[in-house]
Every structure is written in C-alpha cells, then in structure tokens.
Amino acid sequence: RLDGVEMAPPDPILGVSEAFKRDTSADKLNLGVGAYRTEELQPYVLKVVRKAEERMLAANENKEYLPIEGLASFRKATVELLLGADSPTIKEGRVACLQSLSGTGSLRIGAAFIAKFMPGAVAFISRPTWGNHKNIFADTGVEWREYSYFDPETIGLDFEGMIADLEAAPEGSVVVLHGCAHNPTGVDPTKEQWAKIADVIIAKNLVPFFDVAYQGFATGSLEEDAFAPRYFAERSIEFAVAQSYSKNLGLYAERVGAISWVLNDAGAADRVLSQMKRIARAVYSNPPVHGARIVSEVVGNEEMFEEWKGEMDMMAGRIKAVRQELYDALVKLEPNKDWSFVTKQIGMFSFTGMSPAQCDNMTNKHHIYMTRDGRLSLAGLSSSKCQYLAEAMIDSIDN
Ligand code: PLP
Ligand code: TYF
Questions:
Q1: Which residues of the chain have pLDDT under 70?
Q2: Which domain holds residue 376?
Q3: Residue at 285 is within a domain
Q4: Domain check: are 40 and 117 in the same one?
C-alpha cells in the first residue's frame, strides 16, 4: 500500500549536520546549523541553566501535566521579556500567550490559527528567509508569497522593494517579520524603517507575524532586540509573535517557546487563547515542563537573570570576535575586494553571496559544511579556524 511513498529530501539546514557527521576529515567544520559552540567547538550549556536545573532538582518538582496553555510563570516571563514588564498591553490583559514547542512549533500553531480564522489570507515572507518558514505555512495550508528584502548589490536591505511589495499585498495579508537578527542575511531594518513598515501595515490593514528567535543576539540587549514588537504594540497594531529560547538560553533540544497574539481588546485575547488551546490540544495536548521551568527560574530570579545576560554577552561577544577575525583574514589575503559585509551583518550568521557551486566547493574540497544559500553560521566558528575558513572562501569564490 505504501510502496509509492518516495524518499523525502533532507532538511536544507539540519541535513548539513548529518552530512558533517559522515565526514572523516580532521579539518571538517560545521558552519551549517545556527547553534552556538565554544572556542573548542563544543556545544555549550549555560551555567545559569545548570544552576536552575539544580534548584529544580532540589525542589523535587513533579511531572504532572501542564495546562494546555503551558506553565503560568513561564508565560508571564516570556511575554514580559518581549514587551517589557511595565507594558500597558500586558497590564490590560491584551496578550494571548500559549507556551508551545520552541520557535518552530509556535510558528506552526500560529499558522494553523491563521488558516482557521483568517481563511484565504496569504502569508508574505522575506526573500530570502529561514528555510522552515515556507514549510510551516505550506503544511498548514496557508498560501505564502515573498516580499523583497535583500539587495545583493549593497548586501543590505532592499527597503524600497520591501515597502513596494507590502503596499501591493492584498488587504489583510499576514507579513512574517524577523524581530531581530534576520536569518540568513544578518540585515535588520533601522528604527526609522520600522516606523515606515508600521505605516504601510496600518494603511493596508496587514497582520504582522513576528518571528523572534534571536532576542539578545542582535544588539546584545534584550530590550533593544525587542524594539520592533514593542513599537508595534505602542502603535496599537495587532500582531502574532513566535518566541524561542533555543539560542539565547541555549535550550535547543528542550523545545521551549511561545506563540502570542498581541491584541487591542482583552476579551479578544481570551477568545483567541481559547482557540489556540483547541489547536494545540489536537496536535500535542500540552507542552513539556522542564525547559519552561528553567526559563521561569532564570527570568524570575534577579541574580540569575543578570547572570543570563552576562552569558548571552559572552556568546554574542565570541561571535563578534570571530566575525572580526574572519574579516581581517579575508582582507589580508585579498585586500582589493570589499569584505565589509562580514562585519556589517549582525547575529549568528554571515551571508556571503556564494553560489551553490561555490558552497559545494567549500564542502567537497575544504570540508566546511554550510547551507547552499551561502550562509555561514559564525556561532560554529572558532578563532583558530578563521584563517582556514578565509582561505577556503577565497579559493571557492575565485574558482
Ligand atoms: N525562526 C528562525 C528565524 C530561526 O532561525 C529559528 C532557528 O532557531 C527558529 C525560528 C526556530 O528554532 P526553534 O524551533 O529551535 O526555536
Ligand atoms: O537556521 C538555523 O540554522 C537554526 C536552526 O529545521 C534550525 O534556526 C535549522 C533548521 C530547522 C530548525 C532549526
């Protein structure tokens, strides 16, 4: 009966890690997935996470089911992290927050909600964007289209193209926006540009859907990195937002995140939450508790919260340092080329403009694993590998 099932293609990002594991070269370097590594290229568990886990173990917590909407203290902490603890939106009960399965599961519940309650709405995603956005909307039956975002000439934002495409979108369309540290380009709108984006959203009655996967990794400040959603809330724009703790708290495998709707009416927030619960119930019933407890321990304790910020600075600082070292190595090897994009881009990635063939050369000849859109995860790079990477890049670009 199932003889006709064809082999599915590997995930364009996670599939790179699988290929990396099979490579036996001593030089191999995994710059595919956006996951933080130490200078020794080992995964890193934050000290503050270990501390929270010790406290949880000592408290002898049980493993009872959580409510469908998740752990109350986690939801409170997560919404406050996004909008600020003194946000009037929160005080007035206008946020519907459901703990879900990290960023991906949160986007998925948000997309399912859109499919159900905004039938026919098209989701506009940036070109390029994180590979999974298309999958998530397509699998939930929401049609997606792209809006201009990246200008390969300037290696910057194609702001005019973006605004023109949003202006041309049908009324009531959904616009997926990266809250900060755009993946894969590392290019974010300025505050002035966010204001103009908000103008178009209001004029065209569009519905923003923020994907916040890197809060704390763009400017280094949790508050600054939440500028766009906070600003939209101030302007009374109603929006959805998916949050993830994979990167900023290093909880990748724990699957910790939330989907929220920020609305202008508390009654609407209650009704929306009830419907998101209904969707979640049919998918996984209720979310896992362990990671959510870690978050509420860390965010709920002033000392641990400060410690977390210190470790986030350390991680973001190491990425900035290798960004600079890679730039220096490239300039030294090929001074006549403009490498400034390396240090201009922010967040975990470097978007190099390399073609698929050049990426293949990086992998096949130099054992450097990356996605074929030309993205390098600097979170997986060490100081000691910058020279090797620069040489491989120049060999791949020049040939
Ligand atoms: N959205 C973007 C833009 C991402 O880069 C990621 C990857 O971290 C995610 C969402 C979701 O990741 P996760 O499901 O691990 O939270
Ligand atoms: O872009 C990345 O590398 C991260 C990790 O299906 C990731 O966001 C990649 C693919 C995926 C889930 C997470």
A1: none
A2: 14-44+316-398
A3: yes
A4: no
Helix (H) or strand (E) holding 174: strand 174-178
- In this structure, are 131 and 266 located in the same domain? yes
Same domain? 106 vs 208: yes
Task: Identify whether residues 233 and 322 lie together within a single domain.
Answer: no
* 329 within domain boundaries: yes
Residues 291 and 331 in one domain: no
CATH of the domain at 281: 3.40.640.10
Is residue 254 in contact with ligand 1, taking CB distance under 6 Å?
no
Model confidence pLDDT, tens digit, residues 254-290: 999 999 999 999 999 999 999 999 999 999 999 999 9
**Burial class (CB within 10 angstroms; exposed 0-12, middle 13-18, buried 19+) of 134:** middle
- Omega before residue 356 within 30° of 0, cis: no
Check if the beta carbon of residue 352 is closer than 8 Å to that of residue 395.
no
Which percentage of the chain shows pLDDT scores above 90?
A: 95
Atom of ligand 2 at shortest range from CA of 183: 1
**Nearest Cα residue to atom 10 of ligand 1:** 103
Shared-domain flag, residues 101 and 188: yes
Write down the pTM of the prediction. 0.96
Which atom from ligand 2 is nearest to the alpha carbon of 32? 3
**CB atoms < 10 A from the CB of 356, how many?**
11
The secondary structure of 277-318 as a DSSP string is: HHHHHHHTSS--SHHHHHHHHHHHSHHHHHHHHHHHHHHHHH
**Tens digits of residue pLDDT in 182-241:** 999 999 999 999 999 999 999 999 999 999 999 998 988 999 999 999 999 999 999 999
Is the CB–ligand 1 distance for residue 215 below 6 Å? no
CB neighbourhood size of 390 (10 A): 22
- In terms of domains, do 378 and 252 share one? no
CATH code of residue 327: 3.90.1150.10
User: 86-110 burial by CB neighbour count: b if 16+ within 10 A, else e?
Assistant: ebebbeeebbbbbbbbbbbbbbbbb
> Has residue 59 been placed in a domain?
no
Token representation of residue 14:
């996670």
Residue 211 is among the residues annotated as catalytic for this protein: yes
- Identify the burial level of 343 via C-beta atoms within 10 angstroms of its C-beta, where 0-12 means exposed, 13-18 middle and 19 or more buried: middle
- Domains: count for the chain: 2
Ligand nearest 247 Cα, by number?
A: 1
Q: Find residue 347's DSSP bridge partners.
A: none
Tell whether 93 is covered by a domain: yes
